[in-house]
Amino acid sequence: xxxxxxxxxxxxxxxxxxAVEDAADELFRARGVLDLPAAAPAPLRAxxxxxxxxxxxxxxxxxxxxxxxxxxxxQLSVHPASMRQGIGAALLGAAVSxxxxxGARRVTLxxxxxxxxxxxxxxxxxxxxxxxxxxxxxxxxxxxxxLGLTRRGRRVAMARPV
Length: 162
Hints:
Order of helices and strands: EHHEEEHEHEHE
Number of strands: 7
CATH class: Alpha Beta
GO molecular function, one term: acyltransferase activity, transferring groups other than amino-acyl groups
Mean pLDDT: 91
Protein name: GCN5-related N-acetyltransferase
Shape: globular
Domain N-acetyltransferase: 4-162
Distance between the termini: 19 Å
CATH superfamily: Gcn5-related N-acetyltransferase (GNAT)
CATH architecture: 3-Layer(aba) Sandwich
Radius of gyration: 15 Å
Strand content: 25-35%
Largest sheet: 7 strands, mixed
Number of domains: 1
Keywords: Acyltransferase, Transferase
Low-confidence stretches: none
Number of helices: 5
Structural class: alpha+beta
């Protein structure tokens, strides 16, 4: 993670996120997942509690929200050309730091259980599968099911203590 600078996204940075997300989603398309939701537009991302980015232009980002009093990692994407350089790990560390600053007890996320760069990767970085879902996190999981994300694999909730 040396040399990776994580910062809060500017309005200009938010405009770059869809391209990073689309490029990262190509990894899923290669696995046959062709019906992912479209990348969120900048105005929608601007409503998040916090958006963290790496690079100019942006090569990785994390979208954080407040859910059940915790910090929730709604999205983490790194452009494939910039993977394996510590960017994702730096974004995770910054998410945990942001949670600590606001007194949250943990950072949560929802992800695919069996995709190598999803739950197994998060587990290597200190996240554990949890069934301790508050009402807001339960609602997010239900919304993901409505979007059809569970058709392509088992989804799990994970948490990392702050």
